[in-house]
Amino acid sequence: MEAQDSAERPGLGRHRRTYHPQRWGPARYALQLLSLVPLSALVLLLVFLLGEILGLARAASIAVTSGLVVLGLSAVRVLRYRRPARGMHLYEHGLVAVTADGSEVVFPWSSTVLFMDGWNRYKLANSEGTVITIAAAYRTPPLSGDRIRGMRTRTVIRGVQFPDEREWGSAIRRGVRESRTRPAVAAVLSGGEVAFGNLVVRQDGLTVRRGHGRDDFTSWEDVGSVALTDRDGLVIASRGNDFPSHYAKPLHRVPNAEVFLDVARRLHGRRAPAAPVPAARNDEDMSETLALMGLYVTFGLAAWAAWRLGTRNEVEGAGDFLLAALGAVLGGFSGAVFGLALAAASTAAGETLVKTLARWTRHRRYAAAGALALGVVDLVVALGFFLLREFPSRLVPLVTLLFFGGWALLLAVKRCSESERWVVRHLPDLPGMALVALAAQQLVRGDVLTTAPAAGLFFPLAIGLSWRGWRKMKDSTRPTVKAVADIVLSVELGLVLALLVVWLANALSFSPAQVAATRRVMERIQGLTEVHWLYWLVAYTLLAVGSYAVVRRPDRVTRIRQRLRPARFGEARLPLGAFVNFGRRSLTGINVGLMVALLFAVVLAPVSEGTWKKPLAHRYAFEVQRRQYAEGAADAYEAIRQYVTTHPRAAARLRAVVVAVNRAAPSPAGGPVNRTALETARQVGRFQAATLGLDDPDPPQPAEVSEAEDVTGQLEQLDEGQQRAEEREAQADRFAELASLAITRTFDIPDLGDNGAVQILKEYLGGLVEDGPVKKVFLRWAERTGQAPPDGGRLVRIDVRNLASVAYGRTQEAVERADAGMLAFYARFGIGIPVEEPSMAQVVDLANQHRYLQQGTGPCTGCVTSGNSGTSPGGGGGGGRRS
Prior knowledge:
Layout: E1 8-9, E2 13-19, H1 26-35, H2 37-54, H3 59-81, E3 85-91, E4 94-99, E5 104-108, E6 113-116, E7 121-125, E8 130-136, E9 154-162, H4 165-189, E10 194-196, E11 199-201, E12 205-208, E13 216-219, E14 223-228, E15 233-238, E16 246-250, H5 257-270, H6 281-310, H7 318-362, H8 366-390, H9 392-416, H10 422-425, H11 429-444, H12 458-474, H13 479-483, H14 485-508, H15 512-529, H16 533-552, H17 554-564, H18 576-603, H19 616-646, H20 648-651, H21 655-664, H22 675-691, H23 711-744, H24 753-769, H25 774-782, H26 792-796, H27 800-817, H28 822-829, H29 840-855
Parallel strand pairs: 8-9
Antiparallel strand pairs: 1-2, 2-3, 3-4, 4-5, 6-7, 7-8, 10-11, 11-12, 12-13, 14-15, 15-16
């Protein structure tokens, strides 16, 4: 930098200092690129949420691609829009900016329009419409917003940063303020007007120009204050009927804002000021509450996204842990950006709508205001009905969660905000973020209030809040509020009852028949509470006759009452009118509550066995698939039985499997086979299925439930589908037992017995047929849509070397996944398949090792242990069937 104090320029005065722009190095470009990440992260999370809601298979990859595309386009925009400068000369009465091509642009203070914000960024425009946007060296440069309303502009410098902003920034502001304030005040006092954008200052008052001549005007007598807020906004408080009570506008949208403040305050002080406009405490509290809710939305979505992405994949090692941590950080950042944008957009939309309605009402445009309000209401109602029809099992619990959860949160905020302790004031923060995270989970997965065991704590809270709200409404001084108190309580309890029934059905695993019975009970109770209006008319008529009798013959009524009233009641008497009214209200409330519960729990949110959140069509398709797979397994078992019947010597080879399994996990003579032996035999069957080299065909197309008149019919169809699936599975179980009996007739094992051999072979065949592609291949062949299935001989025949190779490879992979000791595994089983001919005992030992890694129980001498051992499905019985 250089100083040239002696140099002068005509019209600008003495030269003060020259400033050179800060150069952009790699670090500056990296920081600029980093500032564009929030927008791309917002797009990424939005696309990811839409993909999760719509059920897209590759939602994550699509979201990442969208975020990278937005980031690239934003970076190109930054490089394209930035227009550098060579320097800036500061003079006593103006500024000269030197562009990149060496041309100079002059900005005299007397004709310069200045825009500024609280981030030390400035936009200057001269009388010719030439615009420059500059900023401090430590601030993000402005890359947009260089257009000025009502002026044809040409930007020559954009997004340039200069050091020493405290010096040149204050000089610019002071020069424009001193040069333009006095002429503006003189013009106004002489009867003219001075415009600061859409703010027009006159001697008699202030005008805000609107479109179509619908301007807002307030006199200076009605103005309460003209001030700046802590958030760099201009606020004007007024009592005028044709002016907003609190008009707010961002400071960076007001040209020469400091000049406007000086002129407005001077004119306001010349008039007799009105009584100060009281700052409504309710408005301030509402503003603070909305800001707090915005923070809850921001950090709640961040927490949910971090948990969602961090737990997306199973953590099995240090690398997976680092990837999960990185995903959690990325998810938290993206969620915070999305939540911040959502909160800001909601607040801006609400303020815009409210301000528009207030302005139109103020200008007596009642038809337009009514049309806008009606249009917004219709749009919200239409959107609500659409979402309720498309996603009933997600929307109804979501609305209930937000309603009661938000209600409880507001009460907690109101109660804790009055405390003097910092800890108490921030107690609702964690529940508020948790509420937003649960709402996001409910929107995406739909299982927060219907399947989670902890949801049982929500229902007492909702019932207590409903009772509290009913008491408040009954004590209200407004007749309308008191009149609808019972109906509101009934609707609230109906919603809670609907979700409670769904949650209990999930927790207790109701069958379709039990679901239908529950609905019939609720309908029956509702029918009992439907008292015809004639009965109420008769009751109130009798009350009216009794009241007339009391008035006409009070002495006779007193004698009758003394005769009928027992002595122990004393002077107490039953208020019949209040009792009848209470009965009518109670029955009506119960009827409405049950009607709402039936409407949401049964009509709009169809249920299925065990999990009500799944549509009936999906559950029905699953039952049909169970039946089809059982039919395929039955065909495979029958093929094995027929082959064994005609080729008994080939079946005798399976004796080695039974002997080896019994040696690895011996069972007591004459007793049932232990669980370890059954699980090991099934694992050997899975290994044998892998040696067949069959292609795993696609599952059959899901069947669709036929259209029924109501949900009861659909539940009956689902119940029938379940019965048919169970019948086919029982048939497959019988076929598996027959095949096992046919095989055991070909050999004899005295130490085990026929019954034990049948159980072991049954589990072996179950792993061979049902836990692999065999049942699907037989099913496709039966439907004439697939390849020919293997014959019985191929299913019975065992290639021990091939079987040992498959068993060794899959067990080795299981040891690696379990992060167990590979050295111990190699020490026992060797490195690779041995050259000599392997035995069935080695295959069974590998199967037992594979089983032990999953269960961690049962005898397994010399087996490698795992710290991640879990519980695998149980074994035994049912054709070796696993659910």
